[in-house]
Amino acid sequence: MEAVVTQATPIPPAQAELEEPSARLRAVIGRLSRRLRPTVAGSQLTPSQTSVLFSIVRFGPIHLSELARIEGINPTMLSRIAAILADAGLISRSADPADRRSAFVQSTAAGRRMRERIQRERALALGAHIGELDEREQRALWDALPVLEALAERIPGPTP
Question: Is 95 inside a domain boundary?
């Protein structure tokens, strides 16, 4: 039996020039996100629980099925996470009056406060590190913000 050898399709030069910086940008965004994730306020929550809580605060009240689609997790796992968040008093769950088999979730005041504390801690941590940059580096970062914000708007994301 002969091994099948396939040849990689050559990447056009213009595309290759974009891939290197694009890969670097994606990697640095991921590193920043992971390093800013841990907080004192959210220390009792897993990253998945924090993500679900943030989505519920942002989009709620929302059907669990829609939330599972937005979060990209299976309904069984989401149901477990929702139960943990409900037991912690961060969300409330209610049956859909039109379909008693379906449920809505929404954040409680405690859930909204938790999200605010986590976001505030992350912003303060990022601000402290930015404060350690020299003036030229800070200016370069601030100058890039409008472009990064526009790029974020162009990339499709989950919506209810």
Answer: yes
